[in-house]
Amino acid sequence: MVVGSRVRSSAPQPALVLVVDDDEDNRVAATTALEAAGHRVVIATGGEEAIAAFATETPDCILLDVRMPGLDGFGACQRIRALPHGADTPVIFLTALRDIDTFDRALLAGGDDFLSKPVRAAELLVRVQSALKLRRMSAELREHYDLLKQQRDALQRVQLQKERLMAFVVHDLKNPVSAMDLHAQVLLRAEGLTPFLRDSATQIRTEARQLTRMITDLLDLSKADEGRLVPQLARVDLASLAAEVASELGVTARSMRVELACAVTAAPVRADEDLLRRALTNLVDNALRHAPPGSTVTLAATTDGEGTLVRVLDGGDGIAAELRMTIFEPFVQLGTGSSPPSTRTGRGLGLAFCKLVAEAHLGKIWVEDNAPGAVFCLRLPPAA
């Protein structure tokens, strides 16, 4: 056990935090972040050791892992609460299980806060500082604190319910969409199919793939909010990828009487091929939906000293300068309220996902004026 020493002084002492986790990497990460912020740290590797450390060291705050061999975090918390000073020492549970049942058990065991792994250092420090400040609150404010805590817990529980509901909805949507695509493929293999029916079946496949992309985008947006979206980088031939995207959306372009052109001279990039493919598809699909009949949508990409610049140009309504960053926020659609008025509407996810992909690759995305129309620009940094 590693214990931070206590020094008697009239000056305020740094807070002593008890870190309880059976995983050494997690202990090191938490200790490093806490000590860098000026806190002292005492370490325990299990529930029984945590109880002994609390009895001898009387820490100011406890970071307590839920799942540990032997006595788990819930049991350790309940026993600590029964010790002298245990009732008013803040306990922050750490767990990789992000679900309502774990959240409810943490509250029932006497936890004051709840953090999901992997824990970001900045968030950990904010939660610890908040717990320490709340502990120092005077008695007349305790009632107000309890009310605020109940409200915060209720909001966090609603958030977890929303995440579980979204996961259920997304999972239930994927099966029927896959079935639609499968049946469309069966139709396309049928002999004697008229050109009209063949085009209809092809359009069904295109729309099914777009719906699948929307579902996957929704999942990735949720992962990004939780810090769990990490691109898998590899060498990607951007010219080939752009040609595949153009081929996939060719039926959509023809149905809208819009020409889809590729002008890619960029060198291969280092990127997550799946994320980049979906980002390009979303940008081109967005351009096609707003391009007037008889116009051209162009997917272009070049390489320069700053990396790779991907541009998607359309001849539809432009986007007012004050709205060119807002359009990348989730569920934002432009309408008659913009100046000049715009008919650009959408599903509210595609462009938000494109921004997510750009940021995940340490790049950026923005909109320029095409006079008429808009140019969506995606900048990827130079490959290492």
Describe the structure.
This protein is of the alpha/beta class. The chain folds into three domains: 16-136, 3-Layer(aba) Sandwich (Rossmann fold); 159-225; 234-380, Heat Shock Protein 90. Helix content is 48%, strand content 17%. The protein is built from eleven helices and twelve strands. The protein has helices spanning 24-36, 47-57, 73-81, 100-109, 121-135, 139-188, 195-225, 238-248, 250-255, 273-290, 350-360; strands at 16-20, 40-44, 61-65, 91-95, 113-116, 234-236, 259-264, 269-271, 296-304, 307-313, 364-369, 374-380. The strands form three sheets. The chain has a five-stranded parallel β-sheet, with helices on both faces. The protein has a five-stranded mixed β-sheet with strand order 7-9-10-12-11. Strands 6-8 form a two-stranded antiparallel ribbon. Helix 1 (24-36) links the parallel strand 1 and strand 2 (40-44). The longest helix is centred in the middle third of the chain and has 50 residues, at 139-188. The radius of gyration is 27 Å and the shape is elongated. Residues 1-11 and 336-341 have low confidence and may be disordered.
Keywords:
384 residues, alpha/beta, Rossmann fold, Heat Shock Protein 90, 5-stranded mixed sheet, 11 helices, 12 strands, 48% helix, 17% strand, disordered N terminus
